[in-house]
Amino acid sequence: MSAATSRRPSMLERRSSAMSSRRPSIDPSRLVPMDKTTAHTGNEFNVVFVGAGNIMFGSDEGPWNHSFRFEHKLGPRLKVVALIDPAIERATTVLQKKCESFVRSAYENTRVFKTLEDYVNSFDRKSPPQAFVVGSPPMFRGTTKPGRDIEIQILNHFPNVALFIEKPVTTGPSEEIEEAFKVAKFISDKGTITSVGYMLRYLKAVQMMKQIIDDNNLTVMATIARYATAYEAIAKPDWWNKSKSAGPIVEQGTHFCDLSRYFGGDVDISTVSAHSVEWYENAGHLSKQSIDETAIPPEDRVPRVTAATWKYEGGAVGSFTHLVALQGHDYSCELEVYADGYQLKLVNPYVQPVLYVRRPGSDLEESHRFPDDDPFFSEISVWIDNIEDIEEDPETAQILCTFDGQCHPIGQQAVADGERFTDACKSYELTWAIREASERTRNLKRAEAAPIQA
Ligand SMILES: NC(=O)c1ccc[n+]([C@@H]2O[C@H](COP(=O)([O-])OP(=O)(O)OC[C@H]3O[C@@H](n4cnc5c(N)ncnc54)[C@H](O)[C@@H]3O)[C@@H](O)[C@H]2O)c1
Known about the structure:
Elements: H1 3-6, H2 11-20, E1 45-50, H3 54-57, H4 66-74, E2 78-84, H5 88-99, H6 104-107, E3 111-113, H7 116-122, E4 131-134, H8 150-157, E5 162-165, H9 177-190, E6 194-196, H10 204-215, E7 220-230, H11 242-245, H12 248-264, E8 273-277, E9 305-311, E10 317-326, E11 332-339, E12 342-347, E13 354-358, E14 366-369, H13 375-389, H14 409-416, H15 424-449
Parallel strand pairs: 1-2, 1-4, 2-3, 4-5, 5-6, 7-10
Antiparallel strand pairs: 7-11, 8-9, 9-10, 11-12, 12-13, 13-14
Helix pairs in contact: 2-14, 4-13, 9-15, 12-15
Bound molecules: nicotinamide-adenine-dinucleotide.
């Protein structure tokens, strides 16, 4: 046997080969509910949380709360070895609460650091981290620029850890979109097990839609998405300020742009067109904002409606309407996917998902309900299974959204299978294309309306 053939495959090669044989979808019956998780006995699972905010520890704003899902997935094995957040008081307060509860063992030795650098300088070498969960605001990550390059810094110091990164992968000026792709390449070259927080892909309803498409060998003709925010409940002033949050499409509509791409494939970005209703238009007047919008510079105020269309590279057409229009608490969101003879309509994915299916040769609409489905748990669970089982169990469910599919073997496999692989950087790129297209048409309209200069 030659040296080349007897060489033991590197970790990257082993991971790549295990992952390339996996499907970019999951049989919905294999998504294990939180209350049916089996208790793994085994080693402690050391994780670092970056960010002590709502996504990590929960709030009244919604069902997100990663720490809660980690506790249920790992039980007594969970050890949060560090919590990194410049807001030390916030971090200390959330830890204190955890230590007063039955999950104390996961947090009693957690150390709080202001920065990653502080952690690197004094971390306990007897408890090295296996994984980092990055839930800091997106403007502090997803680039190669100092202070906004936490993924690169983490992997430089801890090359073997896995990463979970919240959506969107970054925010910043649109000229910097390429930065996210550079970070993606860096992560991909390291062979890091990475998942990005587009949890809607893990909904059982979404996986059932994928299964219907796969089983019937369908070609998607169109995706129609609508996301109507309950704006009254949004009390964070930054959300209303485009210079802080990047605006509702990049920050929030991103979930539905990503889901559209999960079904439609990659978008021909040059085809994206969009219109908006702006805050200064009659139709854009809102009567129940819970913030003082006059404190936000006029040019930074968010649009009330953004309606976009585009062509997918595979030939289908996509459309997305985002609305800042509803009051109360719950959002109203729907995604329709069409193929020859089929309509797959996903309703209310955040609160109580229902999937309506119309099949060829029939006017009837079947409805499917998925009580107690928790996509936040499923995405964490699948990511941890990949970290723990990657080499032993090729049946481990596949991570459904990575940072970048371009240089990843899963992507090549999926395209070879005729199924388009989609990824988080491209979703970020699409959201910016929509925002910019809507601002272009807005500016044209304004220029038309402006009095002709003498
Ligand atoms: N998947 C979802 O449904 C979902 C839901 C909510 C939030 N998110 C995402 O999670 C991220 C955080 O949102 P949030 O609601 O928790 O925000 P938040 O404002 O509640 O918390 C952010 C925390 O990060 C800290 N922080 C700021 N700069 C930091 C840095 N450089 N390093 C470490 N920590 C830093 C802040 O002090 C704060 O405690 C955003 O990207 C958001 O879009 C996703």
